[in-house]
Every structure is written in structure tokens, then in C-alpha cells.
DNA sequence: GTTATAGGTCTTTTT
DNA sequence: GACCTATAAC
């Protein structure tokens, strides 16, 4: 039976397939299990065609896992279910229907860098001072408007308020026109333009309403207005809509998520049934008790009490470190203990509020030789060489893509400098040509001989590559591009080793394309690009279970679970973050984040904070986080770091150096009023002189 | 048109 | 303390 092993509420949620259903699922209450079984039940028991089922997940990884689990229950036909993120589902729809709203199906998707570039460009063309108006802010505002489904033109009409609003409005309009001219969408457009498609073409909407008779949305508390609208449109006809969420885990208000979407579900669908999943199967009673105690401090919430049949488990360990290095050292040591007691590296996760906090932990891990993996921050796809390669591919699959063309027009160096580019752009805009077309008219642009020659050659190269695309797999085509453009040679023969390593990354990229080719034979480069553009931080990790400690932001940890969890930087100003501390809503969302973090842990939770911390190279003293006071004392064991900074050194002392790790003082001598310590380190750095006045050393007990 | 250096500026979270 | 950007020399 599909419902075997489920509790009564879970079973009810699985079996309630007709009509609207709201599942309020606390952390660790088995909602993924409920969702997968529900879909399996709809297909297996209710005999619904898989083609009629839609499931929207928060990450691609979650989609993949859900799909695998459904395949296990109902077999291969599960392949016809549409499972994906809002963004990937919309891409799929837009690829089929793009022409209806004036785009070509080979459209490209801008990554956040490209978006910023285009915003800046638009602002400069409007003669705005980038110092006076931060492009980041403008971008943020435009994104917010798109999430609220406000079109560029509506905005321009109503923007008589502040100067800033006018800047936003006109930048938005120009930016949007440029996107259109480039046959490109930004992330927000993927949702917004799909809605536009549906509202302008009722027949298309109807077709998808007929198709998606059973709709599921996970993490509903984090949907924004546009996503809400999209779901409303699709669900209108059959009203078989199942949303799953937990208002206590709403952590994306800053990117437009609107918690009232879940709070008002029963108003939107008065006939809705509601199922509450309150039994937690994941964490020990201690961890769950702590999580409940913290979240209770939020005022804006529906009362809910998670309970657990699990054992009490170990106390929560609270550690007051001296500074970030000490904190990292503690985490590293604790993990080593765990591993020595037959624990595994991959059971452990380190969670932090901001990506920048990962560095201190990383350094401690390197010293202690602990294998780790960082999710998010700078990833493979953010590397310059990868972005360059992707830009080539984007231009080749979407000839209108000006942003990408500008990126690679002179990479590798081919003597097409800024002034040449400017002339080409002016010419293109005057003649209403794309930049790529303008390249072909090199001689008419009025360029100097050398520049014209270079431009023409580049144009020919791109044309040749575009012609050769036919019939090749993505992998074959990418290797061809790497070779013909000279991109690989650029890195392969570079004098600096660092640059030569980039060639390896390009080869690594071919591994990615091979996997794509295997999964989707005969798909085009533009499909590959879309897949890559929509990967989230969680998706980007490798699939195989590696024996590595996982490091990530608290945001990225949502939906995951680990035996042992460390939350570091538990300090006022860090967590809750400085910029969220202005209003109670901000604080409450930070508290949700704290709740998410705590409930990631199955067996053991460690919380650390620093008494001093260096930010910008400036020393700063933070109070411990207010959330710490909200965890009941009797659930915790508190420790204070016993290492300390010292000035009275003697031979034989064991010390810890911030970079080189543990060592022993061999000798002390005076040199120009300063003492110099000769230290034998355990690490491969060996014996080194250290100035304790410059480098802060910590005393470590033997 | 290309490259090197110095100064100014920033760090929340992400599809 | 790191990263990008404006400026000047090649």
C-alpha cells in the first residue's frame, strides 16, 4: 500500500486528492514523503495520467529526488510528471510558447551578473550617476516590482513621487527594452512573462489548465506574488491544488515572498481542507524543545506545537569562542572527535548567516585536514573562464544576446577595444541591427583598418561556429567552441599557474555537458544553458554522497537534515543580521531562520559565538545573539574557550598560529625592541620565526 | 589597445 | 582585508 507506515494525518493528506488542500507541515514532519506518496497515489490508485500532474519544488535537487522516489512507487511512467522549480517549469512553458509573446524559443536567461551589467549600462545611458544611485538598489527595486507584477509602463505612469522612483521607473523601462531586444529573460521575467502569456492568450492558459489537473506546491510560505498568481491561474479550472508549507519557516520575505499566501489559502479556497502535520520524526526531543522555545517568541504566527516520539538525546553545546579562528578551531576539533568515535564527515554540517563567514571555518578545516564542501558563494559556474565559455554558447544559440556578446567580444584579446565596441554599438542602434549583425558590416562602421579586420574575423568565426552546430551533441559542440575560439589556449599556455588551472575547469565543464547529453540526447545548447542557469546553490553540489563536511548558509540549509549541526556566529549583528534589526518583522524572519537552522539537526546541535570578531580588519565586540537567551538553559551545556592571547611566552609553550596551526616555541630572542619567537609547527610550514606583536598567537593546552 | 598600480569601496540571505 | 575601478604608463 502506498500509505503504509504513514500516520493518520499523513494518510489523510495523501488520500485527499480532490479539491484544494492545505498541508501545514512542521519541520521534519515527513512532508516530502507525503508529497511523493500523494502523487504516486493519484497516479497509481486514482488512475490519473502522469501527464496531468504538476509538482513545484523549491530546488532542482528536491525535484530530482522527488521524481526518483515516485519512480520507485509507480515505475517509469512517473517520467511524464512535470516536476521542477517555478523557474524551470516556466522555462519549459516559455520554450513552447515564446513566439506568442514576441520572443524566440532560443531565448537566453540572464544570470545575476548579467542583470547587474545590463542595469548599470541602462543607467549610464540615461546619464545617471552610479555613485548617487546604487545600481544594486535599483536592481532590487525593479525585481520587487516584477515580483509584484508591475510592468515597466505602469510604473512610469505613477512614478511622480520621489526622484529615486523616477530613476527606477526609467531604468526599468530601458532595461526591459534591452532584455526584449536581446531576446532574453531575467529570473523574475520567467514567472512574469508566463503570466503575461496566460493573460494575453486565454486559449493557451486553458490548454495548461487542462493539462495540470493536479497541482502541488512545496514551500508555499516562500512564494511571492507572481508565483501565487501563476498558481491561481493554473488551478482555477480544476481546483485540485495542494500546497504544503510552514509559516514558521518563511525566510524569503526580502526577495518578495509573501507569507499571507499561505495564511490566506483558506480564504482563497473556502472549500479547502486543512491537514496539520505536527509529529516530528527527525530530531531528538532536546533539539525540538529548543526550536519550539525559540519560535514561540514570534508574535505573528499560527500556534503550532511540534512533538517528537524520539529519545531525549544529548544537550545542546554552546561554545563561547575568543574570535573566528578560535571558533573554527573548536568546530574542527569537535568534528575530529566525532570522526574518531566512528562518526562520519558527511554527517556534519556547518551553518552560518552570511557566506563571508565560511572563510574562517574553511581555514581551520584546512589546517586540521578535514574534508569539506562549501555550498554557495563562489561556485564553479561563477568562475570567469566558465562564464566566458557560457557567454560564447549563449551568443551562438541566441544571436540577439548583446550582453553576452559584449562579454566575449575581446576575450581572448583580439584587438577590439572599448572605442571600437562603442562605435559598433552606436552603429547597431542607429541602423536597428543587433550587435552581431553590426559586426558583419565592419567596413561601413568607419573603423580603422586594423580594427575592421579584427571585427570581420571575429564575425566570421561566430558564423562558422553557428553553422557547425547542427547535428553535434552539446559536448562535441562545446569542445569545438573551446578550440576554435582560442579560449582553451588562452588559459592552457598562460605563464601564471593560477590561470592554467582555469583550463582544467573548462575540461571539467565538458563533464557537465556529457552528463547533460546522456540525460537528454538530441537537446539543444539553449536547453543546456537554461538548465545550468537555473541551478540553485544546493543543486550545484555533486550528487554522490562524498565523505565531506557540508558548509552552507542557513538559507541554503532549508529542506536538508544532518546528524550533527553547527551554527556559528551566534551574535547580535551577525545573527540576527545587522540589517534585519530595524523592525520587528526583520527580527521575526531571522528567528524563523534560527528555527530552520536548529531543526536541521537530527542528533546533536552545537552553537558557537565569538567574544571578539574582526570585520573589515576592524576588531568588534558583539553580544551573544538574543536567540541564545531564548533557548532554555537546562537543555544546554555552556563552555568558554580556554585558549587565550598572551604576551608572556616561554620556550616549550604550545601555541596556535592563525594560518600555520599548532606549534611549539623553540627559541625566543630580542630584535630591535621586539621579541621574535622561533616556532616549530606541526604543519608542512615547519620551523618559522614569528613576531608576536604582529601576529596574534594563542596559548593552547598541551 | 593593453597592462600595471594605487586607491576607494564595500559584505545578508538567492532563483 | 579583498576586490573591483579609475588612472597612468607602455
Automatic annotation (TrEMBL):
Gene3D superfamilies: 1.10.10.160, P-loop containing nucleotide triphosphate hydrolases, PCRA, domain 4. One of its GO terms (molecular function) is DNA helicase activity. Residues 4-284 form the UvrD-like helicase ATP-binding domain. SUPFAM superfamilies: P-loop containing nucleoside triphosphate hydrolases. Pfam families: PcrA_UvrD_tudor (PF21196), UvrD-helicase (PF00580), UvrD_C (PF13361). Keywords: ATP-binding, DNA-binding, Helicase, Hydrolase, Isomerase, Nucleotide-binding. It comes from the Bacteria. InterPro entries: ATP-dep_DNA_helicase_PcrA, DExx_box_DNA_helicase_dom_sf, DNA_helicase_UvrD-like_C, DNA_helicase_UvrD/REP, P-loop_NTPase, UvrD-like_ATP-bd. Coiled coil: none annotated. ATP binds at residues 25-32. Residues 285-559 form the UvrD-like helicase C-terminal domain. It catalyses: Couples ATP hydrolysis with the unwinding of duplex DNA by translocating in the 3'-5' direction; ATP + H2O = ADP + phosphate + H(+). The keyword Ion transport does not apply. Its EC number is 5.6.2.4. NCBIfam families: pcrA. Belongs to the helicase family. UvrD subfamily. PANTHER family: ATP-DEPENDENT DNA HELICASE SRS2, UVRD / RECB / PCRA DNA HELICASE FAMILY MEMBER. This is ATP-dependent DNA helicase. It comes from Fodinisporobacter ferrooxydans.
Amino acid at each position: 500500500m502506498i500509505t503504509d507506515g504513514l500516520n493518520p494525518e499523513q494518510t489523510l493528506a495523501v488520500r485527499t486528492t480532490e479539491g484544494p488542500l492545505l498541508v501545514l507541515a512542521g519541520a521534519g514532519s515527513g512532508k516530502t514523503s507525503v508529497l511523493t506518496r500523494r502523487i504516486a497515489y493519484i497516479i497509481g490508485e486514482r488512475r490519473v495520467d502522469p501527464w496531468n500532474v504538476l509538482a513545484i519544488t523549491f530546488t532542482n535537487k528536491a525535484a530530482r529526488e522527488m521524481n526518483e522516489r515516485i519512480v520507485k512507487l509507480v515505475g517509469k511512467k512517473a517520467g511524464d510528471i512535470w516536476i521542477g522549480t517555478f523557474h524551470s517549469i516556466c522555462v519549459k512553458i516559455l520554450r513552447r510558447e515564446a513566439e506568442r509573446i514576441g520572443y524566440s524559443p532560443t531565448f537566453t536567461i540572464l544570470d545575476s551578473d548579467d542583470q547587474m551589467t545590463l542595469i548599470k549600462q541602462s543607467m549610464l545611458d540615461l546619464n545617471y550617476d552610479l555613485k548617487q544611485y546604487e545600481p544594486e538598489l535599483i536592481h532590487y527595486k525593479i525585481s520587487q516590482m516584477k515580483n509584484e507584477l508591475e510592468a515597466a509602463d505602469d510604473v512610469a505612469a505613477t512614478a511622480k513621487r520621489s526622484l529615486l522612483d523616477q530613476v527606477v521607473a526609467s531604468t526599468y523601462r530601458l532595461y526591459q527594452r534591452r532584455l526584449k531586444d536581446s531576446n532574453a529573460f531575467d529570473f523574475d521575467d520567467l514567472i512574469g512573462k508566463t503570466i503575461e502569456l496566460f493573460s494575453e492568450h486565454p486559449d493557451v492558459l486553458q490548454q495548461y489548465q487542462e493539462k495540470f489537473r493536479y497541482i502541488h506546491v512545496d514551500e508555499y510560505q516562500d512564494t511571492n506574488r507572481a508565483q501565487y498568481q501563476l498558481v491561481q491561474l493554473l488551478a482555477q479550472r480544476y481546483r485540485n491544488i495542494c500546497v504544503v508549507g510552514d509559516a514558521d519557516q518563511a525566510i524569503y520575505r526580502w526577495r518578495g515572498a509573501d507569507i499571507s499566501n499561505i495564511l490566506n489559502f483558506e480564504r482563497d479556497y473556502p472549500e479547502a481542507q486543512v491537514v496539520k502535520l505536527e509529529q516530528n520524526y527527525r530530531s531528538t526531543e532536546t533539539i525540538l524543545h529548543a526550536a519550539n522555545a525559540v519560535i514561540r517568541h514570534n508574535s505573528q504566527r499560527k500556534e503550532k506545537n511540534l512533538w517528537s516520539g524520539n529519545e531525549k538525546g544529548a544537550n545542546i553545546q554552546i561554545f563561547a569562542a575568543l574570535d573566528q579562528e578560535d571558533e573554527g578551531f573548536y568546530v574542527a576539533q569537535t568534528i575530529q572527535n566525532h570522526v574518531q568515535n566512528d562518526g562520519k564527515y558527511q554527517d556534519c554540517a556547518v551553518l552560518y548567516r552570511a557566506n563571508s563567514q565560511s572563510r574562517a571555518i574553511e581555514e581551520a578545516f584546512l589546517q586540521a585536514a578535514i574534508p569539506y564542501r562549501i555550498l554557495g558563494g563562489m561556485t564553479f559556474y561563477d568562475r570567469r573562464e566558465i562564464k566566458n565559455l557560457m557567454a560564447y554558447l549563449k551568443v551562438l544559440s541566441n544571436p540577439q544576446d548583446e550582453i553576452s556578446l559584449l562579454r566575449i567580444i575581446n576575450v581572448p584579446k583580439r584587438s577590439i577595444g572599448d572605442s571600437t565596441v562603442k562605435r559598433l554599438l552606436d552603429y547597431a542602434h542607429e541602423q536597428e541591427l543587433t550587435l552581431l549583425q553590426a559586426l558583419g558590416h565592419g567596413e561601413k562602421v568607419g573603423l580603422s583598418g586594423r580594427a575592421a579586420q579584427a571585427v570581420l574575423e571575429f564575425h566570421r568565426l561566430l558564423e562558422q561556429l553557428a553553422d557547425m552546430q547542427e547535428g553535434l551533441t552539446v559536448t562535441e559542440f562545446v569542445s569545438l567552441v573551446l578550440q576554435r575560439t582560442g579560449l582553451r589556449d588562452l588559459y592552457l599556455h598562460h605563464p601564471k599557474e593560477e590561470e592554467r588551472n582555469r583550463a582544467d575547469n573548462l575540461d571539467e565543464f565538458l563533464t557537465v555537458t556529457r552528463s547533460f547529453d546522456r540525460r537528454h540526447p538530441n537537446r539543444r545548447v539553449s536547453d543546456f544553458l537554461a538548465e545550468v542557469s537555473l541551478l540553485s546553490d544546493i543543486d550545484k553540489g555533486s550528487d554522490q554522497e562524498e565523505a565531506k563536511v557540508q558548509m552552507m548558509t542557513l538559507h541554503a540549509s532549508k529542506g536538508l537534515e544532518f546528524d550533527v549541526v553547527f551554527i556559528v556566529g551566534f551574535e547580535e549583528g551577525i545573527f540576527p543580521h545587522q540589517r534585519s534589526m530595524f523592525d520587528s518583522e526583520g527580527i521575526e524572519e531571522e528567528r524563523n531562520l534560527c528555527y530552520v537552522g536548529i531543526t536541521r539537526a537530527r542528533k546533536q546541535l552545537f552553537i558557537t559565538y565569538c567574544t571578539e570578531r574582526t570585520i573589515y580588519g576592524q576588531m568588534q565586540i558583539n553580544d551573544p545573539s538574543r536567540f541564545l537567551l531564548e533557548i532554555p538553559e537546562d537543555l544546554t551545556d555552556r563552555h568558554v574557550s580556554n585558549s587565550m592571547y598572551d604576551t608572556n611566552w616561554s620556550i616549550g609553550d604550545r601555541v596556535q598560529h592563525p594560518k600555520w596551526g599548532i606549534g611549539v616555541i623553540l627559541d625566543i630572542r630580542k630584535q630591535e625592541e621586539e621579541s621574535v619567537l622561533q616556532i616549530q609547527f606541526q604543519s608542512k610550514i615547519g620551523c618559522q620565526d614569528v613576531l608576536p606583536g604582529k601576529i596574534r598567537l594563542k596559548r593552547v593546552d598541551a
